[in-house]
Each structure stands twice: as C-alpha cells, then as structure tokens.
Amino acid sequence: MTMLGDRQQLSYIASQAADARLNLELETEGMTLNIGPQHPATHGTLRIIARLDGEQVVWAEPACGYMHRGYEKLTEVRTYPQVTTLVNRIDWLGSFANEVPFILAAEKLMGVEAPTRAQYIRTILFELSRIANVSLFLGDLGVQLGAITPVFLAFRDREYVLNLIESATGGRFHPNFDRIGGLKDDLPAGWIDETRAVMKKLRGFCDQIEDLLFGNEIFQSRTRGIGVIPRDVALQYGLSGANLRASGVDWDLRRDHQLPMAWNKADWKVWTHPDGDSFARCWIRLQETRESTKIVDQLLGSIPAGPVMAKVPKIIKVPEGEAWVSTENPLGEMGYYVVSRGDLGPFRVKIRSASFNNISITPWLLRGVYVPDIVTILASLYFILGDIDR
Amino acid sequence: MTVILAEIPYWGQSLLRVLGGLVAVLLPAGTIVYVFLFKMMSFMQSRLGPMEAGPYGSMQLFAEVGKWLQKEDIVPDRADARIFKMAPIIVLVSTFLLVAVVPFGPDAWFTDFETGIFYALAVSSISVLGILIAGWSSANKYSLLGGLRAAGQLIAYELPMVLAVIGVVIQAGTMNLQKIVVAQNSGSMFGIDAVGHPYVISQFIGFIIFMIAIQAELTQAPFDMPIAESELVSGYMTEYSGFRFLIFFIGEFATAGVFAMIASVLFLGGWGVPFAWFGWTSIDDIDNWMNFAGPLIMFTKMMLLVFIIMWIRFSYPRLREDQLQRFAWKGLIPVALGNIAVTSILKVVF
Amino acid sequence: MPKVPGLVKGLGVTLGTLFNTATKGANTVQYPHEKETPPIRSRGVIALHQDNCTSCMLCSRSCPDWCIYIEAHKELAPPRREGGKPRQVNLLDRFDIDYALCMYCGICVEVCPFDALFWSPEYEYSEPNIADLLHDKTKLSEWMETVPEAPALEAGADKKKK
After folding, report:
1. ipTM at complex level
2. Which has fewest Cβ within 10 Å: B273, B279, B305, C10?
C-alpha cells in the first residue's frame, strides 16, 4: 500500500499471522460482501467492497461514482448566476454553504466585496445550514447504530431551521440566495426574533441527543476506540472538518482564513478531541452544533444596517483570471478553483468537496474491523453522496 | 367452567382450544403492534402514527395485512425454495406451541403440564431453527450473516433465561405454571399477605436477567443484530415478501406477547390477584368469575411487561455481536448462577 | 449527586417525549386535513402576468435547464395618442413552464425586467401524469391570484428601489 501508518499495518499483519497459525485447521474461505450501492448505511449509492473473514474485514475499498452528475463540466456551460443553483445540490443537506465559496471566488475575481450587512446575513445562513446538516447527522447516527428515535427528533428540530431558511430565501433545500456582490434580498421582518427562538430549541435538541445517545453506555461501547485515526494519518489522507479536529488537529477555516465573512465578529470556540475515534468525531459535531447556535445568536444581535447588494453590472462578466476560495463547510473544507476567460460563465471550475477526501481513508480505516463497525465508522466519518460524486 | 367443558364432546373441546390458542396468540400480537409499535413509538418520536384507517388508525393493522397479502410471494432464484417457504411457519408454530402451557385462569388453560416451564423453554428454541434456515436458504450474504448471528445470540441467551427460571422453580417447588401462579398469590412475605408473594420481589435479580434474556430472544434493540436494518438490511428477513414476511412479523410480536405472559406468570403472579383479598386459601376456593377476569388481569400484566420491552427497544442503540456474547457469558450467566446458589441456600435455611 | 447512568437518561428522554406528545400534541401535521402555510417568499409555483410580458425571452434564456417555452408573434396595435403611428407589440402565443424540469431556482423571476413573473407559495399541483406538469399561459395566469404581497423587511434594511 503506502507508507502510511506503518506501525498499524505491521501490527495488523502480525495479528493476522498469529490468527492464521491458530485458525489453520478452522480456516474457511473468505467472503466478499458488497455493501451498497443500495444499502441503508451508505446514505445513497456508495459501494464498499469488503473482503470478510467471518465477520472481520480483511480488505475494503470504496467504489464511488454511482451518482456522478458532472457538475464541474456543467458549470462550463452555465452563466455565473446559474452556477449557484447547481452547486446547491452538491451537499444537499447544507446547501447554502455550497454557494458561498463559489460566490466568494467570483467576487474575488471581479474585485467586488459584499456589503457588511450581506456578509453578516451570509454567515448566519451559512451557520444555519451547518446546523441543518449536522443535526440530521446526529439523528442519523442513531439509526446507523440501531436506535430509531433520535432521527425523528432530529427531523423535528431540523424542520425549524429549514423553515427559517425558507422564509428568508424562499427555498427550503436549495436556497440559491447568494448573488455576486451580495444577496438576492434582505431578511423578512420578524425573522431575527424567530431565529433566536429556534436557536434555543436547537440547544435543547443538542441536550436531548446528548442524553439519549452520547451518554448511553451502549453507544459509547460501540464508538469508543473504534476506527481510530491518528493525527499524522488524518493529515496525510487530507481529511478536513470535524474528522480532522477529532484527531486533535486544531484547524478551522472559519477562523484561519481571512474571508469577507462575519465569523471573526463572533466569539466562539474550535473544539478538538485527542482520541480520533468514532466517538470523538460524533462528539465534535455535537459541540459544533452548539457553537453554531452561539455564532448565530451573537451575529443576530449585531447585524449592521445598510444595503445587501454591492454595485455590480446587470450582466455579469467576470474578468480573466483564476481564484481559489475554500470555506469550512459542514462536512469539511469545500473549495472552488474558478478559471475565467472573461466570459459570461466560468471556463473551468474545480470543486474540492470534503466528503470525497474524507472517504479516501476508508481502505486504511476499515481493515480488521467487524461488519457492524463498518457502519459505525462510515456513520462517524459522515459523508453525503452528492458531496463525494458531485 | 369445568362442568360446562365436560358436557362438550371431545372434538368440540379441541376446536375450542384451537380457537382459544389463536385468540391468545393473535389478539395480544395485534394489540402490541397497534398500541406500542404504531402509537407509543410515534408518540416517543413526537408524531401521531397512523391516523387514517379507522378511528385513530386502529384499523391500520388490517390495512397492512391486506397489503401484505396482495403482494407477490417472491422466492429468490438461487434460494432453497422448499425450506425457504417453510421457515416463517416454523417460527410461528413455536409461538403457538408456547402458548399451550400458559394458564389464563383457575380453569382456563389449554394443558395443565406438570413440567410446563420446562416445556416452554424447550419449544421456545424451535424458532431459532426457523430463523437459521431462513437465513441459510435465502441465498443472500446478509441473510446468512443475520441467521448465524441469530443462532449464536439465541443460544447464548437461552442459558441465562433457563438459569433465571430455576430460581423461581426452586422457590415455588414446582415446574407447573399453574402451581407457580398459585404459590405466588397464596404466599406471603414476612407474614404480610396483602400483595401475596410475587417473585419479582424475592427473585428480582432473576427477573432482570429474565427480561434481558427475553429482549435478546425476541431480537429487540439493543440486541437486534440479527435484524439490524442499517447494517444487515433486516438480516434473515431480507428476501421475504408478502405473506411470508407477514408471518415473520406476526411471529415477532406474538412471541413478544407470549414471552411477556410467561414472565408475568413466573414473576408477577400471572392471572391471579393475591388470594388474601377475597379470603381464598387454595385454588379450589376460587370463584368461577376468575376464569373471565383472569385473562384480563394477565393481559394487563403482559402489556406492562411489553411496554418495558418496547420502551427499551425504542430508546437504545444496538450492541455489537461480540459485546452481546460477552455480556451473556461473562455477565448474565455468572450472576444467574449466583442467584440460583443464593436462592437455594435461603430456601434450605428458611 | 451520583451520576445518572446514560441508559436511564435515554429512557427518560423517550418517556418525556411521549408525555409531551400526549399532552401538547405532536409536531407533525395531518397533511390532507390540516395544512401548514408556507412562508410568503416560499418558491411554490411561478405565476405569469400576461399583460406585462413582452416576450423578450430573457427568462427562457437564463433558465439553467431550459424549461420555459415562449412563442410570440408581432402585431400592430392602435397608436397610443391620436394621430400617432401604430405600435408594434409582441403577442404571446405560447408561454409554457415545464414543472417536471423546473429546479425552482427563481432566476427567471429575478431577470424579468417587466415584472411579468412572480413566485406564489402554492404547492399543491402534483399530477398523476407527467405531461400535465407543463403549465400553459392560462394556467400560469390563474396562479396570479395566489401571489402574496412581498413581506416587510427586517429593521436596518435598505428601502427597495423596485
């Protein structure tokens, strides 16, 4: 394979050799298990080919591309305003967050910057879509582990967030609210108070999930020490987002990148966890949901007055050049490399989506685990199929 | 009651018994599905559950049965068709065999077995056979894994269940379920006979072990790895459709009901109320109306126990297979053995 | 205080939700009998104000999946002022939106320079036949009745120029 994690690999081989000696007489033929493309644990159409010895995985490989929609190519035949409605659909659970890096890249090329009010509202909506995304993760985690109630609680409280997004942008899942130079519209009256009430509810939801799931001894025994990703391996595989922070790397683009957004106006914390196991990854996401509600609450109180749209021409032509902007999306680092030749639409767009890189670690991570742990590990890595295949 | 029964010819009695058995299995199963699976689960998830069929969706189960009966009965190409078709029936038959020894009233029983509980524990493991061959004959890797897990799990939890029952048998001094009921209701604790002597108090550890073992026998969360819809896609049931799936489904909830009945007989005093309330001293004093009140009392106790089973099912995530085995062999069985030792010592001392 | 085991806490959460649902009612809506009102801005269906449409084709061209079909012909209309020249106007023959293709992005509503297209929060127009999702101009005009007033804006917003 690679030079990665030599220690783990050696110990794995040693344990396999010991097992082989022990089981020489009991040795049976292995079995290849195709998990997916249609399987409830893969949130869509990911396929994991696993070679099993009993219930133990000897070798595993993800096969993606079953839902490839060719967004990079599609953007080449779309104008800039049309692209945002496409990229909404990459990570469909936190769709507003997909628009932001693309718009920021286009703005960077054009040399315009959104007014401060627009930056605040963008950040608020960004965090709302993070909450919508991660709260569903917290519920789905329960389903993957066999608890049926958390997912309904998650859908219940996510609904409030989606209602907020809908009443502000008009679109529930695909807002398409970002424009080059600002936002399509201002917030409707009464939205801020409503949001405050919802943020309170969401904090209650986080407590509920913590009681129902995270504090549960069965849940802990299923996730603690399972699927451990050491710090250096996580860095080498290019993980990002909560998966990286769970391995103890203090890395958050919201804080580290200087973007025309309002994150630095709020007081919040980047959570890290030293363990790097499944529990750490889930726990980090729970804490991040709480932090997000705090960010939203703080920014709501300090939205400056003013316009939400900078002065941009009616027909947008982006000057020639190349720009790379990435943000800390709900799933991890998401970035767009936009190449413009001065046309109505981009010449080429490279999309770096977080899940694609995050699942690249699965062959390394799934070796030697049991079949039920495949599900736990995949759930804790948290990928969205649209984000892998694009 | 006995007088009435004696006048009916033998074939009539047999017919009545079969009908009674059907009612005793299907009525609790239907009630459990409606009250717990449809309504309690929905309420725990802040929704209402089915509301359209009948008032408050009470006819939903009939609609579901109608739907399943209409569906095509699919047998996979590579499946071993004959035993594939047989498997669900084996599972359901074991449930009907179980209910045969459960007493519902002083004279309302199907058979008055002297070794009733022994028989019950023996036939309850027949369902393992059905599940194992369902998993094997489906010709599906997920089903096979599910079937093997089910077999391993059910064998592992049969043992603590038997050991937990032994405590009760030692205390009651009989294996006859009817006599266990009488022993609990006519007994007294420290001379106080207001609540009789339900073994849930003196055999509390045994009761807990028995309930955990039931939870595992019924493959309910947190012990539902054989089904595990998020990893094994419903395990041994993956390939079943139509009425064969329906039989598995009925079997699952009917068995839950019957096991809860057995648990209420063993630990909660079964159909009886403490005899001291009405001044009865033995089973012969009991008025005839208990034959009609008895099943209702039994039903209430059963629902209480099923509530606990389902409550846990809807709240907990599932364990891993090896954790489950470790829990059974390293946790439950030693505790159950200790319970037997303590019970028998106390029995000799007092 | 000794720590409550997580297993017990979990049971508490589900039982609490059970009582909440029983006393305060469920969070779900029994859809065909009771309906939620969508927000004013909700993108439900596009309504067409035919008189404003000049069939300039801007919406049709800016649609990312080309689901708007416009056909028009030119006609001479009587002059506005007496003695003036007759005006040339575009009359709509066909204005169809295929809701089987529409992505509800709202670009067409936004680009329309003459305020002929509006969003309506109406959402109940599903059809058993996919071809019926192609709404023609009479049907699109009927939606105009359901178009609400634009909502008031939050404090600190710029006054709308439009």
Report:
1. 0.80
2. B279
Neighbouring-strand partners of residue A47: A63
Query: pLDDT confidence of C26, banded at 50, 70, 90?
Result: confident
Rounded to whole angstroms, the Cα distance separating A122 from A186 reads: 11
Sign, CA dihedral A43-A49-A55-A59, equals negative
Residue C10 falls inside a structural domain: no
Is there a contact between A217 and C106 if contact means CB atoms under 8 Å apart?
A: no
Neighbours of B54 (CB within 10 A): 14
Residues of B in contact with C9 (CB under 8 A): none
Is residue C27 in some structural domain?
no
φ and ψ of A119, to 5 deg: -60, -40
Q: Report the CATH number of the A71-389 domain.
A: 1.10.645.10
User: Among B45, B225, B233, whose Cβ lies nearest the Cβ of A149?
Assistant: B45
Q: Is the pLDDT of residue C127 over 50?
A: yes
> Could you tell me if B21 and B261 are in contact, meaning their C-beta atoms sit under 8 angstroms apart?
no
A386 vs A93: CA distance, rounded Å: 10
Of chain A residues 70-99, which have a CB less than 8 A from chain C? 78-79, 81-82, 85-86
Residue at B71: amino acid letter? K
pLDDT in tens, A151-208: 888 888 888 998 888 888 888 888 888 888 888 888 888 888 889 899 988 888 888 8
Q: Is residue C110 part of a domain?
A: yes
| DSSP result, B192-249 | B-SS---HHHHTHHHHHHHHHHHHHHTT-TTS-TTT-TTTTTTGGGTT--HHHHHHHH
Q: Which of B47, B311, B312 sits opposite C26 (nearest CB)?
A: B47
For the beta carbon of residue B21, count every other beta carbon within 10 angstroms. 17
In angstroms, rounded to a whole number, what is the distance separating the alpha carbons of residues A116 and A113? Answer: 9
Cβ pairs bridging A and B (under 8 Å): 81
Amino acid at site A299: L
Q: What is the CATH number of the domain that holds C131?
A: 3.30.70.3270
Between CA C7 and CA C14 the distance in angstroms is 11
Domain residues for C52? 45-68+95-146
What is the Cβ-side half-sphere exposure of residue A61, based on CA atoms within 13 angstroms?
Answer: 5
The mean pLDDT of B270-276, rounded to a whole number, is 75
Distance from CA of B35 to the nearest CA of C (A): 13
> Using the 8-state DSSP alphabet, how is residue C50 labeled?
G
pLDDT digits (tens, 9 = 90+) for B276-310: 677 776 666 777 777 777 788 888 888 888 888 88
